[in-house]
């Protein structure tokens, strides 16, 4: 209304005064005033006084004019709006550039500081490395020396043991000979004793007969004197057998003495130590001999009597010898006091030799005494004399050697422990430095021998030396490979995941992370990434799902998280969205999502790969994410081959995006965790692939060979990397030589039957280790995040409020 009044004023019409002359009146806003209501009132008063009359044609003209003016005004207005918009966009862009510049400068300075720190750190680590290397070399040398000493000690002990063995055999032989002699002597003595007894009996009979005859003769003695002469003759005749008997008795006595001497000699020989043999077996043999001699003495009364007599005689001889020795010693002392220096030496020598002889004799009697006592009592002697000293000293030596050996072993153990801990520490720091540099981490996992391989009789040729090294027995000798970690056949899924967990945190922190399994068919990639069929041993994928949500829960007071995922399969060089099941495919899928869209791999400005055309689903819990995963797995291409009853015939790619908004400063970071279970490389002849399986195998091998080319180019630092040769390499572009933190798990079989494939996989993995990535956090400040939101709104045609800007 205000505008209409102004128009009327402008053309000078007062319709209220001329109601019959009503015309189509236009309005113009060129003269729109911003005057107040009071001004308008005075203006209205004035216009009421001015009376202008215009003809209809003029009014029409005027209105046309006004219409044109309005049209021009409208154009002008639109131009102004456009100008304003352009200005706004320019300012926004300038603002953005300025902010970006500031951020860039800020991060550049941070990067420089970090680089300086890294250089310093590297320098320190290198110094430490050098020190450690020196220490390890010294320890190795010491270890070598100790080993050498140990070997020498072992040789010596072996030789001594051999020597002891020889001596023992000799002694055994000696003792058994002596025992044989003793037995035969005892047998003959017994025989002779029996004969002697018979003879004595005969002699006694003869004596009895002769005494009877003597008695009869004495009774008849007094009968006649004439017969006297005759009697004397008879008596002398009667004495003859008595004389014979006496002679025979003497003979027997002599023979008995002879036997006695022989036995004494034998015993003497027994008691003389043949050799001062320092042998422990003596202590075993001696009691046996004594026991046997004691048994003989107990069984044969004569031998017992003989032994008693021998003991008495020996004691007497011993006392006599000791007396003589005492006298000689006293005499020597006396002569020492009396003799002059010249004759002293001769005398002293004489005394010395006599003394040593006597000492020897005393000693012999003592030993005899001991032996005889032992035979009598049947108890073994206490080995504390000089014969036993040898044994004792050898025993002591043996103990000493054992002690030394124990000590050496302990030292060796310590050295090895030190060496291992130093090596582990060194590797840890090395890993940290490599991690900082952005090197791709490579783990090696050896799976257990499968039933098939065991049935084929293939030997185990792969061995984990330590946590970082693995050797493969090849026909040309063992080949060693080094990795960031080696997991043996006994390693559990938990152990493997413990070393992987760090990367899940990185994905939540806004990094682009990729974990992928590589290896020949049946080497355990799916087991490592997904787990077994029953999920009794879940692999990295299901464990990651839980870990993501666990970490999110822990940080829920500081961040606001959003998790979404896409799951793809690269089958026969065609990317397929696993959330969509294709009609006509062999597998069935509980939830069908209709016709599949074309999925293409694209990269955003930061080089992060994303799947255009693939459905991305949000998940609010680990269970939900796992359910999505199961849904995807049901759509995967799996079939049985000769090498694996459940062989993956495609590459599985699971992408999990984690967006986190910092509740304190509003910054937003977006991390991506890519989990890839590659299909295994295979030889058609080995797997028995035919028809469509052969086509699958060809496609798998083609894509893996393209992956190999990319790895070779990256490790050789070639200027051109052939990422575009295969869809697989496009998918993995940001993980190999890109901006991701990457972990490769190379799975191998331990069996000899797969030697070639194992070597190829390990060589590939070694090459991958050389590749350096440039991982960067995908984080935006609050302002950038807001500006992006604004642009999105404007693009989608939404209105933008002033306070939004
Ligand atoms: N570390 C392990 N411990 C126990 N069993 C294992 C291990 N690794 C693999 N296996 C078993 O070996 C068989 C083959 O493993 P898997 O299917 O994971 O091989 P793959 O490399 O994925 O093969 P493909 O490339 O043909 O799919 C499976 O039965 C699996 O359970």
From TrEMBL:
Q: Where is this region: Disordered?
A: 17-46, 210-234, 329-353
Instruction: Enumerate the residues binding ATP.
Output: 519-526
Q: Which residues form a coiled coil?
A: 67-167, 242-269, 391-422
Name the predominant localization: cytoplasm
Question: Superkingdom of this entry's organism?
Answer: Eukaryota
- Record's compositionally biased regions (Basic and acidic residues): 329-350
One GO cellular-component annotation of the UniProt record comes to:
microtubule
Q: Which SMART domains match?
A: KISc
Name of this chain's protein: Kinesin-like protein
